[in-house]
Every structure is written in structure tokens, then in C-alpha cells.
Amino acid sequence: MTVLVLLIAGVITLSPTLTILAEQQQEIAQLEAALDESQGQVRDLEEQRERWRDPAYVETQARERLLFVYPGDITYLVIDDLGDEGGGDEIAVSQDIVESQSDWRKALLGSFLVAATTSRGSETEEKATVVIPSPDTGRQP
Questions:
Q1: Rounded to an integer, what distance in angstroms lies between the CA atom of residue 52 and that of residue 65?
Q2: Contact present, 93 and 128 (Cβ < 8 Å)
Q3: Which of 29, 44, 75, 127 would suit a FRET pair with 103, their CA atoms being 20 to 30 Å apart?
Q4: CA 45/CA 52 separation, integer angstroms
């Protein structure tokens, strides 16, 4: 009986200490995991710093991100090369031949008249205004 009482008293005495020990072991494991993650981030940042020390990498980044070019270089910028991905409402294409109602000869003559009668002077000069008949109706706008 005495041994049993001593054993129970020992467990009661040591249980808070064992609980604290278990909690500390868990905290140590969490801190080691955080340390490993931080060391991984440090390695990644060091690799990035080494890349930025390379002049070829800096040149490539300046050309791609900032669109820098050397004098005499010709660059092409493609805008919206992927097209419309939404594919929303598609326009139906007619199979019938549609004839245009405009007269290209009148439009060409009007263009010549505008070009011939306008002057390329200073802003203080009055600009000539030419009234051209509308090709669709034959009326003046």
C-alpha cells in the first residue's frame, strides 16, 4: 500500500513538470520549423541578389519589364495577342452578299477638295471650310 501511495504522490508531483516538458517540446518543434522556413527564404533572397549582380540578368529584366531598348533597336509590342477569351455573344455572319450604298467616286472627290482647299498655316489663320455632299443621300450635312 505504501508503494502505491508513494507512486500516486510521485505522479501527482511530476505531472505538472511533465506537462510543461511536453509543451516545451512542441514549442521547440514549431520554432525549428519556423527557422527552417526563414532559412529557406534567406537562401531564396540570396539567390535573387546574386542574379541581380549579373549584368545580363539586369539587362534582360530592363528589356522585359521596362521595355528598354538600345539605340537603333526596333521592338514590337503585341497588344492583346490572346484575343477575347470570354467568347461571349458571337456575331452571326450573313451568307448573303450585301451591296454598299456609298459612292466611292464622290468620297474620293470630296477628299481631294478638302486636301486642296485647306491650308497648313499657323493657328491664327482662318481655316477654310468646305461643304461636301454626303455620299449616301446627296444632301449637304
A1: 14
A2: no
A3: 127
A4: 11
126: pLDDT strictly greater than 70: no
Question: Which of 137, 135, 139 minimizes the C-alpha distance to 106?
Answer: 135
Any idea of the CA torsion for 43, 44, 45, 50, to the nearest 10 degrees? 90
If we measure between CA atoms, which residue out of 132, 82, 125, 85 comes closest to residue 106? Answer: 132
Which among 127, 111, 108 is positioned nearest to 119, based on CA atoms?
Answer: 127
Helix%, strand%, coil% for the chain, nearest 5: 55, 0, 45
Amino acid 54: pLDDT: 95
d(CA 89, CA 70): 44
CA distance 68 to 71: 10
Output the pLDDT for position 133.
58
Rounded to whole angstroms, the Cα distance separating 56 from 62 reads 10
Cell of 2: 505504501
pLDDT score of 141: 45
